[in-house]
Amino acid sequence: MARGTGAKPMAIPESTAAADGGERRADVADAARVLRRFRQVFNAVKTHFQQVERQAGIGGTQLWALSVVGAQPGIGVGGLAAAMDVHQTTASNLVKSLVSQQLLVAQRDGQDRRAVRLRITARGDTVLRKAPGPFAGVLPDALAALDSQTLQRLDHDLGVLLARLQADDGSGRIPLGQ
Questions:
Q1: What is the pTM of this model?
Q2: 124 closest CA partner among 98, 100, 94, 162
Q3: Domains in the chain, start-ordered, CATH in brackets?
Q4: pLDDT tens profile 136-162
């Protein structure tokens, strides 16, 4: 029992046969080893985001958005959302924050006054120059460096895990840094 909480400590289930009589579940040592690897991934991401915030003064997701606009001046909010693989509302909220910090400028486009074109400011460029890379974050950068076969295997295996977790499909479009 955890001290002072009355809660029982969480344990990884013992190795047992699957309910359908199929494959056996992983044993405790295997599950613990994989859990440690997930912790390493999340801690590497967290450490990078903390370093970004210390050096650049903005969050990792904001830095990524800023870098996309810096690389593609005139991009719209929809294009930013697509480039970051996030929901358009998420991109819009990032833009509002970056505009309020005077790191981006949002200009209405020509005749269609609804369309907004984004440009980085001199202040935003200064933030980018002092920020540690990779701007998209260490996890997207590491994944992009993997070969196709490894990515396909990871995608399949994580899909199995996510099904077991009954995870919300929409949560995949929320950046880790938020």
A1: 0.72
A2: 98
A3: 28-165 (1.10.10.10)
A4: 889 989 999 999 999 999 999 999 999
